[in-house]
Amino acid sequence: MKTIYLIRHGQTLFNQQKKIQGFCDSPLTELGREQAIIAKKHIEELGMVFDDAYCSTSERAVDTLELITDTPYTRVKDLREWNFGRLEAEGEHLNPPLPYRDFFVQFGGEDEFDFRGRISKAIMNIVTNSNGENIIIVSHGAAIAQFYRVWEDYSEVKRQRKIQNCSIFKYHFADNEFVLQEIINHDFSEIE
């Protein structure tokens, strides 16, 4: 059995400015860096040690991973966030109500089910090809949400709220199935 720690990046400039951020990128804010450091401390307190590390090619994911662990890592393009097409870097007020489904296709973006398939395939490839037992993957909020939806029926815990920056989704992987064991949300009250 393998354990996968799927983590969302820290807060970014576009998160702070309420801008749509998928394939486009913006740097971590000071708060985002502090969130990653708190996540690192939490990981160390729990005694988590990673055999393998992976992240999206987006700067915000790379920087978060480098703040959390010194484990050598591989960047994986298919771990990137949803492609929102021409709505990238525009205000979040332009998002339609959930679920988005194929809304972004008209703007040159990605269909929800294509995105879900891309993320799921990328994580499955990483986990099945890794020799490690404890794997850390840093990705994005919508990416983690889509992966969660694929395996929701197998989960031992249910997601109750929006995916927090630097939250950790702990999955066990055996017999080609991902089972969500725990969602770790950090206390950022001292830095917010």
Automatic annotation (TrEMBL):
Binding-site positions, substrate: 8-15, 60
Gene3D superfamilies listed in its UniProt record: Phosphoglycerate mutase-like
Domain of life: Bacteria
GO cellular component: cytoplasm
MF-aspect GO terms: phosphatase activity
InterPro entries assigned to the protein according to its UniProt record, in alphabetical order: His_Pase_superF_clade-1, His_PPase_superfam, PG/BPGM_mutase_AS, PGM_Phosphatase
PROSITE patterns associated with the record: PG_MUTASE
A Pfam family annotated for this UniProt entry: His_Phos_1
Record-given protein name: Histidine phosphatase family protein
